[in-house]
Amino acid sequence: MSNVENKRRRQEDAMVRDVLKSGPHLDRRKFFVSAGAFAAAAAGAGAGTVAAPRPAMAEMPRVLRKPDDRLLNIGATVRSGNYWDFSTWITPVEEFYVRNHYPTPTAESRPELARENWKMRIHGDSVINPIEITYEDLLKMPARSIIANMQCHGNARNLFWEVQGYSSEQVTGGSWVMGAIGNAEWRYVPISHILDKVGLRDDALTAVFWSGVDGADMGRPMPVSELLARGDDIGICFQMNGNELLADHGAPVRLVVPGWGGTASIKWLTEMRITNKRVWSRLNTRGEVYIGDAYARPEFSMDDEFIDVSADDIRGPMVTWMPPQSTLTVPLVLENTPSMPANYPLERGELPTLEAGLQTMRGYAWGPQYGVRDVDYRIDGGSWQPARILAPNLGRYTWVRFEFPWDASAGEHVIETRTTDNSGTSQPAEVPPNLLGMANASIPRFRIRVV
Fold first, then answer.
1. pTM given for the model
2. What is the dihedral of CA 57, 62, 65, 66, to 10 degrees?
3. What's the pLDDT tens digit per position in 340-373?
């Protein structure tokens, strides 16, 4: 084992001990050493030569700021994670998926996003003492850290096409495959502190979190009851993995709502408005909702507030908690997916290959609402077997890594994985289709060719 690998394992072991001792909430910046640092160290351990610097080139405007070398390009403003390369419990920012609806706004293009200029209004008919805070104000408030998954609602959408056999007309959306998820340390001011500071009237019903800098329709309502129930876990976030937020992840400030799909965690946050009405906007009507025969249309009234949408746009319930899910660190075979990601490691219909013999299969499992209790696997339709869950397993909000041995014989095989959370809910064989391909919790099937 190399010195670099020894160092990586020692640091990871120390991280596990630290987390198990401290629990999911941390009060420190240091926690994670990026995988990129290990790659750099490995490179430095080689021949010892330094490449000559390349001539400077004029930078072209970029839709996203992060490079694609460790991400999956699935569209102009969206990048999934290369989950088949995942190995760490905390996801490096370089490998963390990006879901934008518009090009990433930066302080250069939108000066109000500069930390010295940023402001956030907390106001509304149901707020007693409205305030406006600056970035410096935010940093002076009591802060805490939490380790939690962030996941796009469309993660695992491809299972509708590849496993359940639905068409691109029945299920629409981008090809996230299984990588639109990451596990990070988020540092934030708890929303309980903000609510205590401004005070709520008894009629407070809905909080509307708004950006407005990346797109005029970028905001989403949330029940005030959810903020009150999880006031210490939901918060106004200013750091990710111990560093200031990057532009692609909402710099300078975003909302973080652990356990709910990523759309709830509004990026480039500038406003929180609390009202006594139900509120409907694009992100809980035309997008990020379940639309299908199995999903009832939500109740509404013409007295509700409508932000650039109408009652006709209300077709299904808003996606909130993400379900138990799992994946192997193996590329999913894409045969029926409408649009292939630009830099996917397999061609359409191609199977990943593995050498025959004893293999250790690895993966990730998560159950954001209750935490992971068990992970099982089966091969070629055989009986379900328990996988070994690796430490740490902190329960709610985070994921676990798992592994199991496989004596792989030559030929084509199918491996399935299944998460059961601490409420007893397991991934089902199938889930009802929904038009936007939200939150597919069905058992994934990984086809592999052994040679």
1. 0.87
2. -80
3. 999 999 999 999 999 999 999 999 999 999 999 9
